[in-house]
Design brief:
Blueprint: E1 3-4, H1 5-16, E2 28-31, E3 36-37, E4 39-45, H2 48-56, E5 61-66, H3 79-90, E6 94-97, H4 100-104, H5 110-118, E7 121-125, E8 136-144, H6 146-157, E9 162-164, E10 170-175, H7 184-189, E11 194-197, H8 202-211, E12 214-217, H9 220-223, H10 226-239, E13 242-245
Parallel strand pairs: 4-5, 4-13, 5-6, 10-11, 11-12
Antiparallel strand pairs: 1-3, 2-6, 7-8, 8-10, 9-12
Helix pairs in contact: 2-3, 5-10
Family: Belongs to the GTP cyclohydrolase I type 2/NIF3 family.
Keywords: Metal-binding
InterPro entries: DUF34/NIF3 (IPR002678), DUF34/NIF3_sf (IPR036069)
Length: about 250
Amino acid sequence: MPIALTELVAETDRYLNASKIADYCPNGLQVEGRVQVRRIVSGVTASQALLDAAVEQGADVVLVHHGYFWKNEDPRVVGMKGRRLKTLLVHDISLLAYHLPLDVHPEVGNNVQLAQLLGLQVDGLLEPDDPKSVGLVGSLPANMMPAEFAEHLQRTLGRQPLTIEGDRPIRRVAWCTGGAQGYIEKAVAIGADAYLTGEASEPTVHVARETGLSFYAAGHHATERYGVHALGEWMAERFGIEHRFVDIDNPV
C-alpha cells in the first residue's frame, strides 16, 4: 500500500529529530514530487547517476545523505544543478536529504552503523562535553596492531584506507564518518589509539606522526554508505513500502 508523501516526511523528520539540528543545508524534503509513495531509492549523494537509476527503477522518492542547497552554494538553477532538478521534476520524484541528522542518530546514524559493521563498541561521544557531538569513541574487542586494523577496514569496506601507523597497539578508537579529518586532535585529547574518518588533509598526517596516533582515511563515500541504507530499511518497514539502495561508486 502506498503512503502519503506528507506522512512519510513528517514521521521521518520526527524520527531523526531533523528540525532540532542546525546544519549547512535544509534537511528533509528538498524537492516535492508525487503525493503517494510506493518505492524509495536511496544512495549517498543525489548525483545524476543516482537520479537516473531512480528513474529507471520507478522510484517515487530519492533518499540521500548529501542533497542540495548548501550554505553559500550558487542559487542559480543552471548547468549541472538544472539538469539534476529537471530530472526530478520531469519524473515527479521527491528528493529527501538528511545530513547531520543522519550522522548523529543513535540507531540509523552513519557513525553508529559504521561501528556495528566494524565490530566497535560505542562508549561515548568524541566531544564528551558537547551533546551535539557528531563523532564517537569506543573500543575494539581485542587489541589490533595498526596494520591489522587497516586490513580489517579494507576487508569490511572494500577499499584500502590511507593509513598512518601509530606507535602502539589499537584498542581505543575514535571515529567520525565523511570529511571529519579536522577532529583528529580531539581524538588525541581523549587518549584514543586510532582515529578513523573518511578523508585526509595535509596537516592530518603531521598530527598523526607527531602524536603516535594511528590515522585512517577510509573514504568519505565508503564510510557513509550505511546510514542512508539503514534509514531506507527503517522507512520500508515502518511504512510498508519498497526500498532499494543504489551504490554509485566514488573513490573519495
